[in-house]
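@channel sequence for tomorrow's demo:
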Amino acid sequence: MVLFVCTGNTCRSPFAKAILKKIAKEKRVDFIEAKSAGVNAFNGYPASLHAKETAKAFGVDLSNHASQWLSPEILKKADLILAMSEDHLDRIKEIDSDSLKKTYLLSSFPKKLHRKTDSIKDPIGGKPEDYQVCFQQISSSIQRIFPELVELAQKKILLI
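structure tokens (generated this afternoon):
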């Protein structure tokens, strides 16, 4: 299972999860599971309004999204964890330090680079354009790494 991590689980990680699922469906890849969670999330909240609108404009549906808190259990279940920023790496280390060995920044995967410039900025509270930029950054990253995710899954690393 690929786990995407952000702060509130109402924008960036839901974008990533939905984008990965869309690409997998388009390419008829049905053996990669994706989940998302937030380091400061409360369970059960919908995606933010601007996130829903942005996703819809790009052909992605977030209408059924419900936020999830990043628990030790979900970290342990994940085969690969892709965080949006350096701050999320710090929180993952606090919650379950063993999970760091399978954790990367989305924008630098598969390298273990943890530079501030590799963080994907949180658009919450920003203009609609900020959400569009964020969506496009996440989409580009997932399109770039998709072949590697498929390869990892085929090697049984990302088991459903």
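heads up for whoever presents: Strands lie at 2-6, 34-38, 80-83, 103-105.
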